[in-house]
From TrEMBL:
It comes from the Eukaryota. GO terms for biological process: monocarboxylic acid metabolic process; tricarboxylic acid cycle. The active site is at residues 280, 336. Belongs to the citrate synthase family. GO terms for molecular function: acyltransferase activity, acyl groups converted into alkyl on transfer. The chain holds residues 54 to 456 of 486 of the full protein. This is Citrate synthase. Keywords: Transferase, Tricarboxylic acid cycle. Pathway: Carbohydrate metabolism.
Length: 403
């Protein structure tokens, strides 16, 4: 095929879209959502306000935010039939496997999500009805992300599902449904609620990471957004991506005491182990989110007490940042290195950590999906080519004639 060239492995230097949503400068450790520096948003905004910003492109007015929050919270209730769906999993099913399936199942509840209808009901900026339909699907997915995640959490513990009281914030209602400390009567803790809201905000979007690309690849066939989001959730589940926050804690537990860190790093250099929570395709310096997560961890530890793995994490962090093997490969902490310590200190089970990444990332996936649906000239299906290196033409040989 003339003119075709294979992109660098893993799309190393390949841009597949133009976007106005998130900006990353990997050399200088810069991250901005719609132009706003992540540090300012973490300091002054909230997850749900940032959700509006990422999806619609501007910070909302009070009225716009109140309407958005009302719609999201109204659509946070799951159909009662989904309870049977959650009870169909084995007692020890990984909550990300449950959540991925739940997003795909969600589309089957909504006639207008039917892909064939979707194809005919292409979203067009000039058609208010189709835009309203798109917004409703966006509200449903954001609102139900916490409910489905909480159901995946509670079904594993053999506990009934709960519906949070009206009037709670998005993050607070999630913590209420989880009641992850299992005391049966959820008591809000402002420090922990704020910490989770900041973590949600930091995880909301990150331009074209593997899971966002997956959502766009799937969504480009005009399938419904529930199915597209479920494929993003599947991609995020992997230990090279959102599963890294769980992998970091498993790594720290396997290292144990700080004095075992040098031997672990030597094993990493021999490629016998992976240093989870380090390295990034785009950041060639520390991930700017990791500094905010680290500071948030100190706030949380004031309430929960320090995690005994913190010393080991700090020793690992400090030694790796001074070790030429990692420095020469520009490996630095990413968003996952410290976040797991916070989730652990807050009392979440280990395999629930990637779910705490997936819930806020639904917003980023939807922002990119909406941008693609409304792009000028309409949606073009993503269908890359290949360079064929296989056998040339050859004749079929019946099995009794083969050697
Ligand atoms: C997230 O893309 C995003 O934006 C993702 C994310 C988001 O918000 O969506 O930021 C969230 O997924 C963060 C990353 C979480 N994953 C981990 O922490 C897993 C550990 N990290 C590595 O698997 C790796 O760094 C990746 C997957 C994150 C990036 O891989 P790349 O870009 O393909 O880099 P690479 O494998 O080509 O590595 C370059 C070199 C190699 O050495 P050489 O073979 O050239 O000698 O660095 C080495 C790698 O072996 N290397 C590591 C390493 N990461 C890379 N060596 C030891 N430990 C590591 N963690």
């Amino acid at each position: 095929e003339r003119g075709l060239r294979v992109a660098d492995r893993g799309f190393m230097n390949t841009a597949v879209i133009e976007s106005t949503i998130t900006y990353i400068d990997g050399d200088n450790g810069i991250l901005r959502y719609r132009g706003y520096p992540i540090e300012q948003l973490a300091e002054s905004s909230s997850f749900l306000e940032v959700a509006y910003l990422l999806i619609y492109g501007a910070l909302p007015s009070t009225r716009q935010f109140d309407l958005f929050e009302h719609e999201v919270m109204t659509h946070s209730i799951a159909h009662v039939d989904t309870e049977g769906f959650f009870h169909s999993f084995r007692y020890d099913a990984h909550p990300m496997a449950i959540l991925t399936s739940a997003f795909a199942a969600l589309g089957s509840y909504y006639a207008e999500a039917n892909p064939s209808l979707q194809g005919q009901a292409l979203f067009t900026k000039s058609d208010p009805a189709s835009l309203a339909n798109m917004d409703k699907q966006i509200y449903r997915l954001i609102g139900k992300a916490t409910t489905l995640a909480a159901m995946a959490y509670r079904v594993r513990q053999g506990r009934d599902f709960v519906v949070p009281p009206v009037g709670m914030s998005y993050t607070e209602s999630f913590l209420y449904q989880l009641d992850h400390l299992g005391e049966g009567d959820y008591r809000p803790n402002p420090v922990l609620s704020k910490a989770l809201d900041v973590l949600f905000l930091l995880h909301a979007d990150h331009e074209l990471n593997a899971s966002a690309t997956t959502v766009l690849q799937t969504g480009s066939s005009l399938v419904d957004p529930y199915s597209a989001i479920s494929t993003g959730c599947a991609s995020l589940y992997g230990p090279l991506h959102g599963g890294a926050n769980e992998a970091v804690i498993r790594m720290l537990i396997s290292i144990g005491k700080p004095e075992n860190v040098p031997a672990f790093l030597e094993a990493v250099k021999r490629r016998e182990k992976v240093l989870s929570g380090f390295g990034h395709r785009v950041y060639k310096t520390s991930d700017p989110r990791s500094f905010i997560v680290r500071r948030t961890a100190d706030e949380v530890f004031k309430v929960t007490g320090k995690d005994e793995l913190l010393e080991t994490a700090m020793k690992l962090h400090d030694m790796a940042l001074k070790d030429d093997y990692f420095v020469s490969r520009k490996l630095a902490p990413n968003v996952d290195f410290w976040s797991g310590l916070i989730y652990r200190a807050m009392g979440f089970p280990l395999d629930f950590f990637p779910v705490l990444f997936a819930v806020p990332r639904v917003v980023g996936w939807l922002a990119h999906w909406r941008q693609m649906m409304l792009q000028p000239g309409g949606v073009k299906i993503w269908r890359p080519r290949q360079i064929y290196l296989g056998a040339g033409k050859r004749e079929y040989v019946p099995i009794d004639k083969r050697k």
